[in-house]
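Feature request, filed as a ticket because there's no other form

It would be nice if the structure record came with a short human-readable summary line next to the tokens. Right now we just get the raw output. Example of a typical job, pasted below so the devs can see what we mean:
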Amino acid sequence: MKLPPRLPFKVPSGLPTLGGWKRRAAYGTFFALAFLFALQRTFPTEAVKERLVLEAAAMGWQVRMADISPSGFGGVRMRAVTLESQDGTRIPLEEARASLRLWPLLLGRRGLSFDLALYGGRLAGLAEQGPGTQRLVLKGEGIDLGRASVVRKAAGIDLAGMLRADVDVTLDVREPAKSTGRIDLSVEKAAVNGGEVLVPGMGGNLSLPRMSLGTVVAKAAVKAGRAEFEKLEARSEDVEASADQLYFMAQPRLAYAPLFGRARVKLSDAFWQKSGTAGLRGVVEMALASAKGQDGAYGFQIYGTLGHPQARPAAQ
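Raw output as currently delivered:
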């Protein structure tokens, strides 16, 4: 069988042609896109999972997850993740995404961006570590504290409310005085639904009745190696609480950062008229008599650490 003669291929008229540097740029762009696509499809997710488990174990946490898969370029997506500490504290994550930040690597810094779905809300941000510096950026919305058992376990109080967070802090490990940043937190519809708190002078814990806190606002600026609260207050029909000259020293392990300052708490008559507070008022007034001011508010001296704050009665 004789094949028909082969016709030369001609580019249809009207289509653009590339030549010189444009052709080289097109080849370079194609190669880069093909490389990124291949990297995304062949990203070693199982190796990342093993590394996460080992790193968490070194810090005293156990990690479990239902599934892990590639996400974006140089990232992973994990579903149904559970973090559990040695003391039984559990943090469930409905979904977690994490990816390497490529640009900081070129500048000699290790960076990781993340997006977490937890307690009905989201917490996104980035963490970077360079020579002598550490940076943490957090943005959170709609986090339901009523579902956060980790908060209840740490504070001993059953808290409720929706948390919003906006944090950007850079810590200088070598020269802490150069640390900078801002912390902006708020809790809408905050409330105490129960729990126990240690009241100085009573020699034991005090069971708390339900108490509305309204909107809790905390704003702090990090300057000269310490984070000073410009505003920390809660106001509702049950209580008025605020802090004065409250600050903690900035350091990489924030749970151990020394804490100093004063606080003021005033319970309203409406709170004392609620059921369950009849026998409580006399106990509180007797234990905190030395801290009561002329306006009926109780003053406290705050000390301890950020992870374990403590208070002693001190009249304002």
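Something like this underneath would help us a lot:
The chain has a mean pLDDT of 82.
The radius of gyration is 28 Å.
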